[in-house]
Amino acid sequence: MSFIATPQFLSFPEALPLKGGGSLRDYTLAYETYGRLNADSSNAVLVCHALNASHHVAGVYEDQPRSEGWWDNMIGPGKPVDTNRFFVIGINNLGSCFGSTGPMHLNPDTGEVYGADFPVVTVEDWVNAQALLLDRLGIGQLAAVLGGSLGGMQALSWTLQYPERVRHAVVVASAPNLTAENIAFNEVARRAIVTDPDFHGGHFYRHGVVPKRGLRIARMIGHITYLSDDVMNEKFGRQLREGLAPRYSTQDIEFQIESYLRYQGDKFSDYFDANTYLLITRALDYFDPALAHGGNLTLALARATARFMLVSFTTDWRFSPARSREIVKALLDNRRDVSYAEIDAPHGHDAFLLDDARYHGVIGAYFNRIAEELGA
């Protein structure tokens, strides 16, 4: 059974310098916490979210019994990240559309909605903002930082930007940077959005419309990459949506997989912001800690002093096990303490969000070890 979660907000009047130039001031971060911070503030675990997730990591809202957090199967009392032992923090990234300051909020310099004028933010900017929020909470060092996919990139970046503030980093289904194929998928999704007639150069708020067609297509493209071919074949195969005979139509929804993708696209376009999608996929594209070191990941990770746990999934072709092994090798080259698990799971990239006894067992055992170190 899930516990009750309560969103909280902190405002920051001071300017946050951004990696791409300029700064952001008078911004707000939405966050949630679960469990209790111990006397010496040593049991804090930061959970970093992926593209379309948020600070609502676990639990349910009191007035919404079906509002489970996106990683509720992982975090909570008695779960792999046990909130009876850890104080868990989820923070919504800047530029998101789930409570933290983003493109749909007012620009304090103009009094107008940011829209397309919201500055480009990077993984490094998110980590800096998270560090400021932890300062406000009185947390100087994290027992662990945990994230999957884009959240895993943030966890990795934490160990490089604030090595002294992280004791353990748990990086799940992630990569040290995106491949050209991944950047290509992101670009096609972005083109779907910006070429939607309702996009209006990113200032669609002024026109009272939403570029839903572009958002639907972007989500459909993304969803294809999150699933494995085996899962799609097992779940849908070549089943037709209605009846046993094809209609031989170029316009109708014929196959079950088409119906599923359109459903996912429709649902996504009702709650996600188009400018947020552009911002977050760009942050994915730009992340590359080895870039400043001539592409040498070993040199890039030399700053990290944390102990690491990395997890990958065999059928995840978007963030393949080979990408996790690149990180493992670079850390071992630096003689860092690294554990690695490669889980044989059929679910593709989405596996990091699903119930899998082996996966949860690995994470639970690692966090149990951390708790024992803390005497929690």
CATH topology of the largest domain: Rossmann fold
Structural class: alpha/beta
Strand order of the largest sheet: 1-4-8-5-9-10-11-12
Tally the structural domains: 2
Oligomer: single chain
C-alpha Rg, in Å?
A: 21 Å
- Number of helical segments? 10
Please state roughly what percent of the residues sit in beta strands, choosing from under 5%, 5-15%, 15-25%, 25-35%, 35-45% or over 45%.
5-15%
**Overall helicity:** 25-40%
CATH superfamily of the largest domain: Alpha/Beta hydrolase fold, catalytic domain
Q: According to CATH, what is the class of the largest domain?
A: Alpha Beta
Tell me the total number of β-strands: 12
End-to-end separation in angstroms reads 22 Å
Please describe the biggest sheet, giving its number of strands, its sense, and whether it closes into a barrel. Answer: 8 strands, mixed
Assign an overall shape: globular
